Amino acid sequence: MRLLLIEDEVRLAKALQQTFSEHHYIVDLAHDGAVGLDLAQTDTYDIILVDVMLPTMSGYEVVRRLRKTGHATPILMLTARDAVDDRVEGLDAGADDYLVKPFATKELLARVRALSRRSGEMLDVEEVSVGAISIDSVSRSVYVSGEPYSLTGKEFQLLELFMRNPNQVLPKELILDRVWGVEAPMDRNAVEIYVHFLRKKLDRVRTERQIELAEMPVIETVRGVGYALRGGK
To answer: Which residues form the Response regulatory domain (predicted)?
Structure first.
């Protein structure tokens, strides 16, 4: 599981990174709000932990901006400010949980596990819709404007990954791992090839069924990183 920790107290951040590593988490660090926001928007994490008092941009603002762009990753706020109004502000900004410093390591780990379970429950949702496209994960069916549409197995897995993470940049390495798993080819061109196939099919069905551009999500290339599904009312 991959975490992003946005914390300006360097010593605390390093200690927490070590603790999480000992429990088999992968942790990326950011020491100010702007850098943390950029990482959250350009990479993919299972949970984001954000301190409130940060240089360049407050934790509240980081969370607001993420939620405003449709970012659904679970967020845990960490802060020494324990007033009720502070907690309310964090939760209203879009945080999923709020932990006051100083905290016990056991409690922090427990809250991260709880957010992880909550995130897993969200992934168990059978039907997902983005704009004119809907998918059913159980029957592995695709519908465009309510009508069935045929995709290959790998194309379906790729589309499902994008639709469960709309507006998030997915690195090629992550796509290889999630779609191909242990069978992942060594060549990252496999991702480019299948994205190309999927784009052509989505563009073709949009034209054939006369779907408005604004209703049809598109797969955008993020140069040097990967891809993101954008658009779709």
So the answer is: 2-116
Residues 218 and 151 sit within 8 Å (Cβ to Cβ) = no
- Whether pLDDT at 118 is above 70: no
pLDDT at 229: 94
**Overall average pLDDT of the 81-93 stretch:** 84
Q: Are residues 100 and 199 in the same domain?
A: no
Task: Give the separation between CA 125 and CA 134, rounded to whole angstroms.
Answer: 12
How far are the Cα atoms of 23, 35, 195 from residue 74, in angstroms, in the given order? 19, 18, 27
Which of 62, 90, 123 is the C-terminal boundary of a domain? 123
H or E element, residue 2: strand 2-6
pLDDT surpasses 70 at 186:
no
Give me the numbers of helices (H) and strands (E) for the chain, helices first please: 8, 12
Domain that holds residue 188: 127-230
Q: Respond yes or no on whether the N-terminal peptide bond of residue 102 is cis (omega within 30° of 0).
A: yes
The pTM of this model reads 0.58
Looking at the structure, do residues 117 and 172 belong to the same domain, yes or no? no
Based on the number of CB atoms within 10 Å of its own CB, is 75 exposed (0-12), middle (13-18) or buried (19 or more)? buried
